[in-house]
Amino acid sequence: MIPFVGLLAGCPVPHTPATPVGQWNLSDPATGSTYWIYVPKKYSEHKPMPVIISCHGTVPFDVAEHHIRTWKWYGEKYGCIILCPDMLGTDGIIGNGSARDMLVNERRILSILSTLSYRYNIDRANIMITGFSGGGFAAYWVGLRHPDVFSVVVAQNCNFNQSNLDGWYPRAAVKMPVFVYYGEHDPGTIIAQSRKAIRYLRNRGFKKLKTQIIPGAGHDRHPEIAMKFFRNNWKTPAPTILHNSRSKKPFSTSGAGGSRLRGPRPPAP
């Protein structure tokens, strides 16, 4: 368990410059779950845009709204849509990331991505799932179970539970780029569980595993490190091919399908 006082002191949202547009809080029509979304001003339906999904940790010390504020500037700077869903089972103080809650999170995340892909031209070859603190339960569990959906998994100062992960993901997951990092002065539980995650992933044959201990850092957010790893592992975007429902003929995003991919525009900040 993370010491209570250390948790309170270690989760501030880092300061970043203001963004030209604001974030939204939406409800997924299929699951009824809520999430925050940031769509960069530079978004165009003619160009696929990478996606970052960030999983929050222990409520109320780490919530989805903190994550959208943490990530939106990076989304604007590097051209990524940011999704921050409300999660279950991400309590890093007394929780263990139960498989029951992770199944709920999986349904929420995949449903939100499905809706997003209808509204926007997302880059399906480049979707990062990341988590902070207790959000690691969901990032590991959902990310490793879907190597066909997520291109990288990044655990930032995260909790880890081997017993709730082992056996739940396909063999193809070992080919994924995975990054585990934590602070030199993180709480003992986070350091111990991060080390367990690293040993576990190495023993299971994850060849693209990267690790880092941040000198002088405690239990605080460093999205810039995760962003650099994501960008270093960007793949060539897959072409967006849509089909007219009547003629069955493909058309480009500049036609009728393009209007579908224009999506709601974000509000002013």
Structure description:
The structure is a single chain. The strands form 2 sheets. The protein has an 8-stranded mixed sheet, with helices on both faces. The chain has a two-stranded antiparallel sheet with strand order 9-10. By secondary structure, it is of the alpha/beta class. It is built from 7 helices and 10 strands. The chain has a single domain, classed as Rossmann fold (3-Layer(aba) Sandwich), CATH 3.40.50.1820. Helix 3 packs across helix 4.
Structure keywords:
two-stranded antiparallel ribbon, Rossmann fold, alpha/beta, globular, 269 residues, 8-stranded mixed sheet, disordered N terminus
Order of helices and strands: HEEEHEHEHEEHEHEEH
The CATH architecture would be: 3-Layer(aba) Sandwich
Strand order in the largest sheet:
1-2-4-3-5-6-7-8
Count of discrete alpha- or pi-helical segments spanning 4 or more residues: 7
For this entry, what is the oligomeric state of its chains?
Answer: single chain
Q: Give the % helix.
A: 25-40%
Poorly predicted residue ranges: 1-10, 243-258
What class, by secondary structure content?
alpha/beta
Outline the secondary-structure elements:
Blueprint: H1 4-9, E1 24-27, E2 34-38, E3 49-55, H2 64-78, E4 81-85, H3 99-119, E5 122-132, H4 135-145, E6 152-156, E7 178-183, H5 188-203, E8 209-214, H6 223-232, E9 242-243, E10 250-251, H7 256-260
Helix pairs in contact: 3-4
Summed up:
The chain is about 30% helix and about 20% strand.
